[in-house]
């Protein structure tokens, strides 16, 4: 019962004890599972997806992470169909992370739902808080992008390489920078007539 209360507190966005034995155990368990998934590289897709289903809270079809994939708990990650993450993806899912269909991640993309406490005594005692992350359908996230808790990225948008996303990004735009900001809308002029 205490473990369930801690889990609900974490998902609520309130300060929680990140150093609790229950959360430490869950992190250790998922490290072993992600090690197994990363070692399965080169095996049949059905084998790899079976391992991934043991890690994630939910997923569609054709979901793939290149090695090495790391996450904090796994059970708070929900991914749609046709997802691809290039090498070295890190997802700290101390809150719900929802990724839509047809999403592409470049190498070294990180999603960080959690943050440590501001006050040093709270921080030393394990104080953390978290906010959800949502990524819409058909989004492309470039190499080395960091997406912080509380962010929603609208469908069809592109996040340029090296960006740090701290605020919501609307649908159908190209955004980039530190901090990430909208550069322009995606229009019909972006369509390649030869494709």
How would you explain this protein's 3D organization?
By secondary structure, this protein is of the alpha/beta class. It has helices at 2-12, 21-39, 45-55, 120-124, and strands at 16-17, 58-59, 63-65, 70-71, 77-79, 83-85, 90-92, 97-99, 104-105, 110-112, 114-116, 127-130, 133-135, 140-141, 146-148, 152-153, 158-159, 164-165, 173-176, 181-185. The strands form four sheets. A seven-stranded mixed β-sheet has the order 3-6-9-14-17-19-20. Helix 2 packs antiparallel against helix 3 (45-55). The mean pLDDT is 96.
Task: Set out the fold topology.
Elements: H1 2-12, E1 16-17, H2 21-39, H3 45-55, E2 58-59, E3 63-65, E4 70-71, E5 77-79, E6 83-85, E7 90-92, E8 97-99, E9 104-105, E10 110-112, E11 114-116, H4 120-124, E12 127-130, E13 133-135, E14 140-141, E15 146-148, E16 152-153, E17 158-159, E18 164-165, E19 173-176, E20 181-185
Parallel strand pairs: 2-5, 3-6, 4-7, 5-8, 6-9, 7-10, 8-13, 9-14, 10-15, 13-16, 14-17, 15-18, 17-19
Antiparallel strand pairs: 1-12, 11-12, 19-20
Gist?
This protein has 195 residues and is α/β, with parallel strands linked by helices.
Task: Please tag this protein with its features.
single chain; 195 residues; alpha/beta; five-stranded parallel beta sheet; 29% strand; globular
């Amino acid at each position: 019962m205490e473990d369930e209360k801690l889990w609900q507190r974490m998902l609520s966005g309130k300060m929680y004890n990140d150093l609790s034995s229950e959360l430490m155990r869950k992190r250790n368990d998922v490290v072993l599972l992600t090690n197994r998934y990363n070692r399965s590289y080169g095996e049949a897709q059905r084998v790899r997806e079976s391992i991934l289903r043991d890690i994630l809270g939910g997923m569609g079809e054709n979901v793939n992470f290149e090695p090495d994939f790391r996450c904090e708990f796994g059970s708070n990650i929900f991914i749609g169909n046709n997802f691809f993450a290039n090498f070295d993806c890190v997802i700290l899912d101390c809150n719900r992370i929802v990724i839509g269909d047809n999403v592409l991640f470049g190498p070294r993309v990180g999603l960080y739902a959690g943050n440590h406490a501001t006050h040093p005594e709270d921080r030393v005692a394990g104080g953390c808080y978290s906010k959800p992350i949502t990524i819409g359908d058909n989004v492309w996230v470039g190499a080395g992008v960091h997406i912080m808790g509380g962010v929603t990225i609208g469908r069809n948008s592109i996040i340029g390489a090296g960006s740090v996303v701290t605020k919501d990004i609307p649908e159908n735009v190209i955004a980039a920078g530190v901090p990430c900001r909208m550069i322009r809308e995606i229009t019909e002029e972006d369509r390649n007539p030869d494709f």
